[in-house]
Design brief:
CATH topology of the largest domain: Rossmann fold
Number of helices: 10
Distance between the termini: 95 Å
Number of strands: 15
Largest sheet: 6 strands, mixed
Order of helices and strands: HHHEEHEEHEEEHEEHEEEHEHEHE
Oligomer: single chain
Structural class: alpha/beta
Length: 371
Amino acid sequence: MGPDSLSLQDALRVMSELNDLEALERRLRYAQRTNDVTSLDLAEIERLLGEEARWMAERMQEVARVLEDAGLIRRKGNELLLTPRAMRRVGEHALKDIFGNVDAAPAGDHTLTRRGAGLEPGDETKRFAWGDAFGLVDTSRTVMNAVLRDGATTPVRVTADDFEVRPTLALTQCSTVIMLDMSYSMMQGGRFQAGRRIAIALDSLIRSKYPKDNLYIIAFSYVVLSLKPEQLLDSYWVQYGGGTNFQQALRQARQTLARHHIGTKQIVFITDGEPTTAYSSWDDDDEAVIDPVTGLKRIPDVTEETLREVMRCTQDRITLNTFILDSHPATGDLMRNMARINRGRAFFGSAQDIGKYVLLDYVHNKKHTVG
């Protein structure tokens, strides 16, 4: 035995400590997954990781208690979950962050042409025309027109030419799927965090302003995950290896929207690149190879399969609006083809600015003039 060799007793002690560290790692990962740090053993953390680690764990437990007392988190089984009040607060902050410089952001040029449910007054008036409802007459503007014509005399004489109406705006009911790319490249440059913030803000906007709308969230890389809004604040579900599958994500989004038969349907697609993988739907596809992770048949013609799924979305009257973050110039060719097939739009922007486009575009497309 050499001078640095361990005795049997020391070796057993080291093995015991390693086992304890592995067990602690499992408990820490479980605490991360359930968002519950209150069950961590502080004495064990100090023994294995030191006083500073214990101090940090104590602070986290204290924060959890404060949040629970404030009604921002609640306990469900072994998990700590955000309350609706907390989600509203987070969403409000995300909206404020995105709309901080909203006046500088253009709203896009798309005009909705289909009618929806619900009416609200518009901001502008127009001259009364045959067929306009009398309930839409703007009394103040009508009287003002008479005064401007004859002067401030009494009684005010109102003629047919004085009448102005305030056209209403039809509010469409909209079902939306946010498709958030979580591939490896999205993890760089703050792109994924920007996409996550956009999804949280849009959820907050819909809950507060358009409660009849429906919002679904899908995250994808080589796998496709359906998420609840509150899960956007976690990271345990993020899987960014193995490729980027637009085809499967579009298919799941299309199938999700198929349950809605009224109003408009759209996919808000947030990505920074192009698809790198797709799967065959044919059992006898000789060119397909089995994906070792998913067990599905991976095929070589990724772009063609992606565009086929875009065509299926188009046939189902689903609008696809794509928001491309900090992309390579070559990415634009596929995105423009997708927009051409679907008659949707493709926006190119930075991770810092793209949120304004998404939210303003959503609000802009909610309304159109009726009458």
